[in-house]
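[step 3/7] fold_predict: job queued, chain A
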Amino acid sequence: MNPHDADVHLSATTAVPERRHFPRYSVNVQIELHAEDTDVPMRLETTDLSRGGCYIQLMMPLPVGLRLHATLWLNDVPIVVRGCVVTRHPQFGNGIMFLEFKEGDEKILQGYLEKIVA
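[step 4/7] structure written:
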């Protein structure tokens, strides 16, 4: 066996599989977050967005597992979702997974994302 073949095999087997179910787009969208245990809003911007969630930059990130309500503003149209913090990067930000959409809002988000690609 060629030693280089072993390197190729090793790197192929140790590659981390893609976990995302939906394509992600680099887009800044206004978002308002409310942790489920508070009425105090946090007004931020996404750094990327998909049908399955978004990423936000925060110097003091939220704890993983925190449930929250979010309103995304897509071309002045509010999209309401329930979500959960799934990643935390100290002094950088959080990944938020969308769990549940207000009726009809998932289709609005999908249409918005499709226009980004077009």
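[step 5/7] annotate
Strands lie at 30-35, 42-49, 53-57, 67-74, 77-89, 93-101.
The first helix runs from residue 3 to 14.
exit 0
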